[in-house]
């Protein structure tokens, strides 16, 4: 029996894909071009380890970047190997390592039920620290401080190393933030005291655990015989060090990724991890998946022509057997509002003419602020749309309020949860009373919860009574969590806290919506409890699950017909039949903030590559000549990236406004516009620098060229007088081949050419 007969899941793989599945021993790197079937290879490889090599699923560690991706992969593996797939250690870096930390937390001085702070919790605590230190919150903005601390943790720089490093200290002084190290130290100590870790800590403390406790590292090195990492180009220093340590004994590590799609440097991703992987593993086997199954030839070739300009890359040649497909359309508009109208109109036409659905379309942009004009235009055309990347369900105020009660009932040292709920609903306990509680706790070296249980000892009168009532409420919540399942406990907490009644009593549309959101939260907890695959149905387990949700996971339900609007960063890993990439202008894309170095510009180019390769059938690019930015109308130039696409794969669409005035393109200051248009509209050689420049006739004015035919005489403002020798129609483009008296033969695209028809 042949191998494909014995293992039928191998038969539909191409040769490189099959190699990626069968080469299971030793280190390997699978370089997977866009649309090349990397998920299929990764899941089949894991299934083959179990089926062919009888590897225990408990011995396989597979790391992803979203829970959604992990769930999809596990489902595919389960189709091949059955229920054993549930025993895989598969999930995001944060979910897998939080699981390890729960089991080993006592070695680091944390309880197993430690709280996981989200970004809002972190920023709230940082704001409190800045206030306590009497620092200027306009200088020490929470976002900035958070980013600095996060960056340090992802580079495995502790607060001790940070505050003793003169380079970091000088950098903070130069940025007028000399107290950054002190804030970092206080933040870490406050988190520790609150039995809390933030997202970065889940990786940072895993590294500390493996560094300081060799017995623990050895245990997991022996447990994980095979380590696989998806989207390896997106890993940061911390993630790479962990995986390297875990795989260092058996060296059975397989990483899958595409350096051309490394677009998360701003989150700490280090492209050098994939570019230099071979240095750590000299015996590395490199497998290249280069066949694209997603896009047309024109889209694939256009993407190749762009990414080929990057100097820092792993060489590969992506190709496809798909149809040639349509040329890439470029739409130009006078304003950003007009750009929105043109894009919405184009979508409407495509839907009507080709019987398409809204869900076949996506509009991608560099920044969220660009969605406004698109939204307005889609609404005017009665086209339903959905914005991906807005406020996620678990970030809504009413949801965070209920969850904070639950969190505090689970962990009474959770300072952020305490601060959020102590006066919610209002019970007359203001900031000054909270400060007194904090001071009393610090002076007596006890917790705030212990202070509140003796409220009459530290406070007096009405405030002491209000705090005593709050303690009674929380004790009831704690009892509910101990005695009931997560759903029953959450329902009791939502009711007894008074939050549910307060929302129900608000009869406004917004109040009704918030009430329904809390009901949906309870529905979700009920679903969690009733799920037969949920082993631990406790409230602590539910809190961990939702704390580890990512932006991509929150967009899992898409059962209605919408045009999708999102940033390019959000679109990574997705695909759509028709993609509109808007705002293709200098300083917008590439971003003005990404032009200071070659590395930054190359990341922007990779982002453009990702955008192009989201399209399956048709790609349309658009730009505006003017755009409102920061309250002022700015003149824009087409993005340099438009010029980087080989002109054989693009055409300038005739879907542009009648209000457009061509002379704007000829201004000497608008070099990029003129250069781009010239590249697209003419395939003929340009006149030599010594050619005679024609002076237009006094009565020169562009004519309507819709009736232009072979044999007609014309005048061009630059090339002079000539005769039309041939007319050519290519899709929506009409070209005229003209023999000019002095400039020679030219081929002009009539949507741009300014011709005076003489007859």
Task: Lay out the secondary structure.
Elements: H1 3-6, H2 15-22, E1 28-32, H3 38-51, E2 60-64, H4 67-81, E3 89-92, H5 93-104, E4 115-117, H6 119-132, H7 142-154, H8 159-164, H9 166-174, H10 180-193, E5 196-198, H11 199-212, H12 214-223, E6 226-229, H13 237-246, E7 253-257, H14 272-275, H15 277-280, E8 285-289, H16 297-307, E9 328-335, H17 336-354, E10 361-365, H18 371-380, E11 385-387, H19 397-410, H20 415-421, H21 431-444, H22 448-452, H23 455-458, H24 461-483, H25 486-496, H26 499-505, H27 509-530, H28 539-547, E12 563-567, H29 568-571, E13 576-581, H30 598-612, E14 615-629, E15 632-635, H31 640-644, E16 650-652, H32 671-681, E17 713-716, E18 720-730, E19 733-740, E20 744-749, E21 756-757
Parallel strand pairs: 1-7, 1-8, 2-3, 2-6, 4-5, 6-7, 9-14, 9-16, 10-12, 10-13, 11-12, 13-14
Antiparallel strand pairs: 14-15, 17-18, 17-21, 18-19, 19-20
Helix pairs in contact: 2-3, 3-4, 5-11, 6-7, 11-12, 11-13, 16-30, 17-18, 19-20, 19-24, 24-25, 25-27, 26-27
Description:
By secondary structure, this protein is of the alpha/beta class. The protein is built from 32 helices and 21 strands. Strands 9, 10, 11, 12, 13, 14, 15 and 16 form an eight-stranded mixed beta sheet that branches. A six-stranded parallel beta sheet has the order 3-2-6-7-1-8, with helices on both faces. β6, α13 (237-246) and β7 form a beta-alpha-beta unit. α17 crosses α18 (371-380) and α19 (397-410) packs across α24. The protein is globular, with a radius of gyration of 31 Å.
């Amino acid at each position: 029996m042949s191998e494909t007969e014995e293992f039928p899941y191998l038969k539909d793989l191409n040769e490189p894909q099959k190699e990626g599945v069968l080469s299971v021993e030793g280190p390997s790197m699978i370089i997977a071009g866009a649309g090349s079937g990397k998920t299929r290879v990764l899941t089949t490889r894991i299934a083959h380890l179990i089926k062919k090599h009888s590897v225990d699923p408990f011995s396989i560690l597979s790391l992803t970047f979203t829970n959604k991706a992990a769930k999809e992969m596990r489902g595919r593996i389960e189709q091949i190997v059955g229920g054993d797939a549930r025993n895989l250690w598969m999930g995001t870096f944060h979910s897998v390592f939080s699981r390890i930390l729960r089991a080993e937390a006592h070695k680091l001085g944390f309880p197993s039920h430690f709280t996981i702070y989200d970004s809002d919790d972190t920023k709230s605590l940082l704001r409190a620290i800045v206030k306590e230190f009497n620092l200027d919150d306009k200088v020490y903005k929470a976002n900035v401080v958070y980013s600095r601390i996060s960056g340090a943790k992802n580079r495995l720089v502790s607060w001790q190393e940070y505050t003793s490093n003169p380079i970091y200290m000088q950098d903070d002084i130069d940025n007028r933030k000399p107290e950054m190290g002190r804030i970092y130290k206080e933040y870490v100590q406050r988190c520790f005291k609150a039995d809390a870790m933030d997202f970065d800590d889940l990786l940072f403390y895993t590294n500390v655990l493996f560094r300081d406790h060799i017995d623990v590292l050895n245990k997991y090195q022996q447990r994980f015989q095979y380590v696989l990492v998806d989207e390896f180009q997106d890993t940061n220093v911390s993630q790479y060090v962990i995986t390297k340590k875990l795989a260092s004994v058996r060296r059975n590590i397989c990483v899958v990724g595409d350096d051309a799609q490394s677009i998360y440097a701003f989150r700490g991703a280090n492209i050098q991890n994939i570019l230099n992987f071979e240095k750590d593993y000299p015996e590395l086997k490199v497998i290249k998946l280069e066949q694209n199954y997603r896009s047309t030839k024109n889209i694939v070739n256009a993407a190749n022509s762009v990414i080929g300009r990057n100097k820092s890359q792993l060489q590969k040649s992506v190709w496809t057997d798909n149809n040639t497909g349509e040329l890439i359309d470029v739409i130009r508009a006078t304003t950003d509002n007009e750009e929105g109208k043109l894009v919405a109109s184009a979508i409407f036409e495509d839907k009507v003419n080709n019987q398409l659905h809204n869900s076949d379309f996506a509009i991608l942009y560099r920044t969220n602020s660009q969605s406004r004009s698109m939204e307005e235009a889609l609404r005017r055309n009665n086209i339903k749309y959905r914005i991906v990347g807005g406020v996620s369900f678990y970030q809504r105020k009413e949801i965070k309020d209920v969850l904070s009660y639950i969190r505090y009932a689970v962990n009474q040292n959770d300072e952020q949860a305490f601060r959020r709920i102590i006066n919610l609903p209002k019970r007359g306990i203001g900031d000054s009373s909270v400060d007194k509680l904090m001071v009393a706790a610090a002076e007596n070296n006890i917790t705030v919860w212990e202070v509140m249980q003796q409220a009459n000892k530290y406070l007096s009168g009405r405030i002491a009574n209000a705090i005593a009532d709050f303690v009674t409420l929380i004790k009831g919540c704690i009892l509910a969590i101990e005695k009931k399942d997560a759903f029953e406990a959450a329902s009791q907490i939502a009711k007894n806290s008074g939050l549910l009644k307060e929302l129900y009593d608000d009869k406004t549309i917004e109040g009704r919506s918030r009430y329904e959101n809390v009901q949906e939260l309870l529905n979700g907890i009920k679903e969690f409890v009733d799920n037969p695959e949920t082993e631990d149905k406790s409230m602590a387990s539910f809190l961990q699950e939702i704390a580890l949700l990512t932006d991509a996971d929150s967009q899992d339900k898409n059962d209605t017909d919408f045009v999708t609007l999102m940033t390019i960063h959000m679109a990574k890993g997705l695909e759509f039949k028709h993609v509109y990439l808007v705002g293709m202008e200098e300083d917008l894309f590439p971003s003005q903030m990404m032009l200071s170095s070659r590395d930054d510009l190359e990341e922007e180019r990779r982002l453009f590559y990702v955008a192009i390769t989201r399209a399956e059938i048709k790609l349309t690019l658009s730009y505006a000549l003017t755009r409102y930015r920061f309250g002022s109308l700015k003149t824009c130039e087409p993005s340099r990236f438009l010029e980087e696409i080989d002109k054989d794969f693009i055409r300038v669409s005739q879907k542009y406004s009648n209000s457009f005035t061509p002379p704007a393109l000829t201004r000497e200051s608008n070099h990029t516009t003129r250069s781009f248009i010239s590249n697209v509209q003419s395939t003929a050689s340009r006149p030599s620098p010594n050619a005679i420049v024609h002076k237009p006739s006094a009565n020169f004015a562009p004519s309507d060229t819709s009736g232009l035919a072979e044999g007609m005489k014309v005048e061009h403002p630059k090339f002079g007088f000539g005769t039309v020798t041939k007319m050519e129609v290519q899709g929506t483009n009409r070209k005229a081949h003209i023999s000019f008296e002095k400039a020679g033969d030219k081929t002009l695209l009539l949507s741009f050419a300014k011709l005076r028809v003489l007859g």
